[in-house]
Automatic annotation (TrEMBL):
Domain Gamma-butyrobetaine hydroxylase-like N-terminal positions: 2-79
Sorted UniProt keywords: Carnitine biosynthesis, Dioxygenase, Iron, Metal-binding, Oxidoreductase
TauD/TfdA-like domain location: 115-361
Record protein name field: Gamma-butyrobetaine dioxygenase
Organism of this sequence: Nematostella vectensis (Starlet sea anemone)
Cofactor list: L-ascorbate; Fe(2+)
Record family assignment: Belongs to the gamma-BBH/TMLD family.
Single GO BP term: carnitine biosynthetic process
Amino acid sequence: MLHVHWKNNQINRYPYVYLRDNCQCPKCYNSLLLQRNLDSISEVDLDVKPKAVEMRDDGKQIHITWPNEHISQFNSAWLHNKKLPESDDLTGKMKLNKKGVEFWNKSMLQGKLVRFNYEDIMTKKSALFEWLHTLHSVGIALIEEAPSGMKPIAVERLAKRVGYVQDSHYGHTFDVNAKFDANNLAYTTADLPLHCDVPQLEYYPGVQMLHCLKQAPTEGGESIFVDGFFIAQEIKEQHPRLFNLLATTPTPFVDIGKDEFGDFHLMNKRKTIELDELGHIVRFAYSNHMRDYFMDSPVEKVQLLYQAYLILSQMMRDPVNMIEYKLSPGEVVSFNNSRVLHGRRGYTITGEGNRHLQGCYMDWDLVNARLRNLATVLGKTFED
């Protein structure tokens, strides 16, 4: 194993099999494609040891000669960027939030939503980075002065500024207004309960944008938002047994109807609280009106599962945990659909017209890819 001693007295270790697999020479690695040229893992020698190891360029480069005379060179920047954890990060399991992710409730965010200008996002890389970074860290942001009457529409233009729109069975983009033949609660004037969109999809959307073209002229129509990650943290602290149940039990979701692409019958199961290997929360999936009547749980756990759902619902609907905001025409609310639950106060249609929003989705893989690229170009820091 190679031991590298840094100027700050830190020591990092690199297994030789790891270094051989990651050889940066032109035969092994394509620097234009940033990919391996060879199927190196199929020929890996678990016990490989170098024939010789030399430091060159005043300690800025390691030169390794392998038993078959193949030569690998690693500069200090590569070694520093690719250093391995010295042990499992058990401290990470004590906290739900990843580094840079901020949980919130009403007292932390009501009246304090971060705002961006539409034209700035469309023309300035710095504004684009800050908007996407806010979605990553806080999970919600407002965009002002978005134009209407354009094709493509404003939300599609924003998505294309990042990369592309994530299509769904509702179409490339969608309109949210009251319809006589509504196939979704969102297309009525009734209260829309807190939920995440389309958890019945295997690859459900990561980011949602809603552009207000016309707001309800009467009382009602306010948008409601709750941080699902904050709710998960509260449940973990107050009801650890129920937290474990929600983090291990899949909830079936179903959606049957007809829309952009004809008839559909969508089904999927996902855990309400999804954690990564270090115990950080990465997704929160909740939609009571899409929850299937079938429960994929042993009969002896059903009562406890309903208790978990009840407490979850009570926490989400507690006014101290929700923020309200009535969108004005020209405003776009963007939010992490796999974290932030959204809903709407009911409203009444009058002779002055119907409330009308236009929306679309983006995928988190795409957003994170754009963030990494912008961080490199702008010299910013981004860790996902």
